[in-house]
Amino acid sequence: MYENFIYISKKRRTYVLFGFILLIFLFIQSCASHQYAAPISRTGFAFDTVVTITIYDSQKKETLDECLMLCEKYESLFSATQEGSEIWNINHANGQAVSVSYDTAVLIQAALYYCAQSHGMLDLTLHPISEEWNISGQMEQASILPDYKYYIPSQQTLSQLLEHVAYQNVQLIDANGTEIGNNTTLSDNTDYYVLLKDSQSTIDLGFIAKGYIADQLKSYLLSEGVKNAIISLGGNILLIGSKPDNTPFHVGIQKPFGAANEVITTLQKSDSSVVSSGCYERYFIIDDDKKAKTIYHHIFDPTTGYPVQNDLLGVTILSHSSMEGDALSTYCYILGLEKGLEYIRSLENVEAIFITKNYEIISSYLD
Q1: Which CATH homologous superfamily contains domain 86-196?
Q2: What's the CA gap between 18 and 197, in Å, rounded?
Q3: Nearest by Cα to 20 from 118, 104, 143
Q4: What is the mean pLDDT of each run of 10 residues along the chain (367 residues)?
Q5: What are phi and psi of 93, to 5 degrees?
Q6: How far apart are alpha carbons 106 and 208 in whole angstroms?
Q7: What is the spatial distance between Cα 250 and Cα 8, in angstroms, rounded to a whole number?
Q8: Alpha-carbon distance 341 to 353, whole Å?
C-alpha cells in the first residue's frame, strides 16, 4: 500500500528527543522491470535537516553523490551559523561590502524581491529576532533538562532588536558600486558584493535557501539526463517528472502535531514542487493561564518580534519552483487563512492547502 509514496514533513536534529519536527520518509519500490526504472537513493544531512535524493536510474550513482556534494557547497555559502560562509561573512563585516558568489547574489536578490512583494512581512534581516528566541536551542535544552524554563524575550528587548530589522538595509551591488535591482538579470561573469547599511543588521536566508537549492539540484539532474526523481530537503519536496510508468507520485502531507508518518491528506503530483510550513515544525508550548496554551514557534511577525498567532497550523504550496514555494508557504502562513487564500488566488500556476487550528483542510483550488 506504500508503493511510491512520499511523506512530507520536517524533522529536527536526530539527537533531540521530542518528535516536534518529523522526518521525510520515502516509501519507494520498483514499479517496472527495466533496469533503469529501479530507484536508487542517497541520504545526507545539511541545512539542519535530512536530505534525500532519489532517482529512477540505477546507472547514475555518481550523479547522486554529486547532488550531496552540491548540498555541502550551498551550505558553505548560505549558512548563517557556519563560520566562513558568505552569509556569515556579511553578518560579521561591520557594514563593509563583502564579495559574494553568483549563487549567493542570486539568492539574496530573490530574497529581497520576496521581501518587497510581501511588504516586509518576509524579511531576511529577522535573524536577530530568531537568534534571540533560539527556538531550536531551547527545544534541545528542554529535551535534556526536565526542569528547563523556556525563555520568552521581553517586548523591550524585541523592540530594540526590531530597530535593526529592515530588508532595505541590505544592498546588492556590482564592482562599480551600482545597486542591483530585483529585475536585473545577474551574470556569473560579474563580481557582486553585499553590504548592510545598518552594521547591526544581520541576515538569514532560511526562508528560501532550501527551495533555491532544490531548484538547482533539479537543474543539475535534468542536465544529467535524469527524467524521474524526488528531491527531499526537509519540508521541501521537488518532483522531477512522474514515476517511470507515467503515473503521478503520491505525496502525503504531515498532520500538524500528529504522530510520525501520520498524514492529514495525500496528493497525486508530477513534475511539481510541494513545500509546507507551519507552527508545528520548531516550537514549544507554554500554559499561560492553565486554560489557554500558547505555541511559540519559528515563524515571526516582523512588526512585533513574536511568533505569528493566527487561525492556521500549516500551509502547503504547490508550484513549479521550490524557492517560490518556500517563500509563499511562509508568507501565507503569516497572512492567515482569509488573506492567504486571497493572495494565492491572485497568482498564476500556484495552489495552496491551508490547515486550520480545527484541522479543517481548505484548498485554494476548491470552492
Answers
A1: ApbE-like superfamily (1.10.3980.10)
A2: 40
A3: 143
A4: 46 33 34 61 89 94 95 96 97 97 98 98 98 96 95 98 98 96 94 97 96 97 97 94 95 91 94 96 82 89 97 97 98 98 96 97 82
A5: -95, 0
A6: 12
A7: 10
A8: 9
- The domain spans of the chain are 5-80+208-363, 86-196
Give this prediction's pTM: 0.90
User: Using an 8 Å Cβ cutoff, are 230 and 53 in contact?
Assistant: yes
- Pick from 113, 81, 108: nearest CA to 97: 108
Tell how strand 312-319 and strand 273-278 pair up: antiparallel
Amino acid at residue number 166:
A
One-letter amino acid at 91 equals N
User: Of 319, 322, 316, 314, whose CA–CA distance to 350 is shortest?
Assistant: 319
pLDDT computed for residue 157 by the predictor? 98
- Domain 5-80+208-363 top-level CATH class: alpha beta
Q: Cell numbers at residue 184, please?
A: 536585473
